Amino acid sequence: MRWSTALTLGRVANLPSVWTNTLVGVMLAGGDPTAMEFVLLATALSALYLGGMFLNDACDARWDLLHRPERPIPSGQVSAQEVWRTGLALLTLGPVLLWLGRPGDPSAAIAALGLSGVILAYDLTHKQFRHSAWLMGSCRLMVYLVAALFVGGITPAVLWAGTAMLCYIASLTYVAQTEHLNQVHRYWPLLLFAAPVVLVLTRIDQAPMAIPVALLLCFWLFRQLRTLLPGPHRQVASSVGALLAAIPLVDATLLAAHGHVMAGALALLAFLTTLQLQRRFAAT
Predict the structure, then answer these.
(1) What is the pLDDT of residue 236?
(2) Quick one: how far is CA 60 from the chain centroid?
(3) For a pLDDT cut of 90, what percent of the chain falls above it?
(4) How much is the pLDDT for 62?
(5) Which of 22, 41, 201, 227 has the fewest C-beta atoms under 10 angstroms from its C-beta?
(6) Where are the annotated coiled coils located (predicted)?
(7) What's CA 271's distance to the chain center, in Å?
(8) Do the beta carbons of residue 218 and residue 197 sit within 8 Å?
C-alpha cells in the first residue's frame, strides 16, 4: 500500500483532533504524564482512529463504488482485503500499546478494547442504522475516558466534557449521513452542537479566559450551520469538513473553561493545523 493511499484511507487531516481529545482526557483527569507517556497514549489512540477510518472504507466499498468512486478501494489503489487486515491490526495495536505502557494497571487497555468494539460496530452498521451517530459520538467520549484511565482515573469533569463531545459528534454524524446528497434530512440534531457551549457557560465565571475561545467557537458554529439551511448557499460537504476541523476548537474551549490555558492554546494550534491539512487531504 502506498503512503498516499494510506494517508487518504486514514483521513489524516482530522488526526490532530484525536490528540486534543487525548489532551482533554489527561488534563481534566488531573494527570501529569511524562512526555513519553503522553506520546505513547496519543499513538495508541491514533492507531484506533486510523483503524476505524480504514475499516470504514472497507465496509463502505460497495457504497463508494456508486457514490464515491474516487476513494482508494473502488479506484483500484488498494484491495479491500488489505484494508481490512490493516484496519484490524491497528485496532489491536492501540490496546496493546496501552497495556505495555501500564502493565500493572490494565484499565486503560481494557477500555481501549471496548473502544475498538464500538468503532467496529459503527463501521459495520452505520449505513443501515440511522442512529449509529450515537455510536460515533460514543467513540470520542471513550477517547476521553481511555486517556483519563491511563493517567489515573475518570473524574466528573472528564465525564461532562466527554458527554458534550459525544453530543457534538453525534450531531455532526447525523449531518454527514446525507452530505453526498447536499441535504440535511433531520434538523433536530443540530441542537446538539450547542452542548459544549452550554457546558462552558456553566463555568464561565470560574474561567473568564475561556470567553474569547467560546466566542470563536460560537462564531465558527454559526458560520457553518448557516450553510446547512435550505437554499442556494447550502454546502453540506464543506460544512461537515469545517465542523470536523472544529473538534480541536471545542477541546480548546473545554480546556480553557477548566483553567488549562496553555493546553487550550495547543488545542487552538491543532485547530489551525487541521484546517491546513484539510486543504491537502479529504476530511471525509
Answers:
(1) 86
(2) 19
(3) 79
(4) 92
(5) 201
(6) none
(7) 12
(8) yes
Higher-scoring residue by pLDDT: 275, 206: 275
Q: Counting Cβ atoms within 10 Å, is residue 70 exposed (0-12), middle (13-18) or buried (19+)?
A: exposed
- CA dist., res. 249 & res. 265, Å (int): 10
pLDDT digit string (tens) for 96-130? 999 999 988 999 999 999 999 999 999 999 988 88
Only one residue has cell 490496546, namely 95
Among 141, 15, 18, 20, smallest CA distance to 149 is for 141
Q: What residues contact residue 41 under an 8 Å CB cut-off, 6+ apart?
A: 22, 26, 33, 98, 101, 108, 147, 150, 151
Give me 173's grid cell. 454524524
Task: Say yes or no to pLDDT of 87 above 90.
Answer: yes
DSSP SS3 for 196: helix
All domains of the chain in start order, with CATH: 3-277 (1.10.357.140)
Distance CA 86, CA 150 (A): 25
Q: What is the pLDDT of residue 270?
A: 98
116 and 48 Cβ atoms separated by less than 8 Å: yes
Backbone angles phi, psi at 283, to 5 degrees: -80, -25
Burial of 219: CB neighbours in 10 Å, binned 0-12, 13-18, 19+: exposed
**Cβ partners under 8 Å of residue 157, min gap 6:** 28, 29, 258
Residues 6+ apart with CB under 8 A from 237: 179, 180, 182, 284
Tens-digit pLDDT profile for residues 146-157: 999 999 899 999
| Residue 131 in grid coordinates | 442512529
For residue 212, give Cα distances in angstroms to 248, 261, 284: 15, 12, 29
